[in-house]
Amino acid sequence: MEVLGGVGVDLIASVLFTSAGFGLARLYESLKARRRFGYVNALLGTGRRITVVFPGAGPTRELEGRPANAIGMSLAEGAAITRVGVICRDARPGTEMYLVHPNDFHPARGPFVIIGDPADAAWSRVWVANSFPQLCCSAERHCVEFDGARWETRIDNNVVIRDFGLIIVGVTSNAHHFAILWGASEFGVNIAARAFGDLYSQLSRERYKKVVAGESWMYVAQGDVDGYGVRTDDVSNVSIVAAYRSHNNSE
Predict the structure, then answer these.
(1) Is residue 215 one of the residues assigned to a domain?
(2) Which structural domain, as residue segments, surrounds residue 241?
(3) Is residue 22 included in any domain, yes or no?
(4) Which CA distances in Å does 129 have to 146, 192, 245?
(5) Residue 225 belongs to some domain of the structure
(6) DSSP assignments along 112-175, one per residue
(7) 182: enclosing H helix or E strand
(8) What is the pLDDT of residues 129-184, one digit of tens each?
(9) How many domains does the chain have?
């Protein structure tokens, strides 16, 4: 009986140690994810709802007879929207994503991410012009210029092989965090979304803290384009190559 009792004690101890180890591992992973996605938690605030403003309808997206809520967009733009949703749900399980057309967008309603050219929505057009007045985007020339720097989509034999994405983060006058993701061409927005999901690794600790705190910054990311999009296996070929602080941060 003493032997059996000893075995029972050992078994209970093993179960307790295993459970404690599992609990500590879960806690470590949770803390690591919380640190990695700290800016997303700041973005979401106290809720679990994120508004995603999808690319505005242009001449190539408006087809006669198409229902008003049947959206036409590129694969890269659709992938960017999906990635934003995954990032938010990884940071805070249970997050709900709502898609909104630029014409129906109201920045006072909560945190949001704008996908595509900020000029498509009235609010972001004005905000970007005030915060980064030197920024110039040309969809026709597939390039973006800012403060003497220029980033241009690399096209070989009529195929995009490298592109640039832009990320702007900030806080509205209603204290809602937001992000704007777009690029030199349609592929750029997917590159921006990938870099957005990897800001913790891409930025210095000091800069990352400023993003979480709500300072307004613009980041430029570059990435190689494989076929019809950026490689889907990882973000190793996406990197941030430039960072600019909005002059409004000093106000």
Answers:
(1) yes
(2) 37-59+66-250
(3) no
(4) 12, 20, 14
(5) yes
(6) EEEES-GGGSHHHHHHHHHH-TT-EEETTTTEEEETTEEEE-EEETTEEEEEEEEEEEEE-TTS
(7) strand 177-183
(8) 999 999 998 878 888 999 899 999 999 999 999 999 999 999 999 999 999 999 98
(9) 1
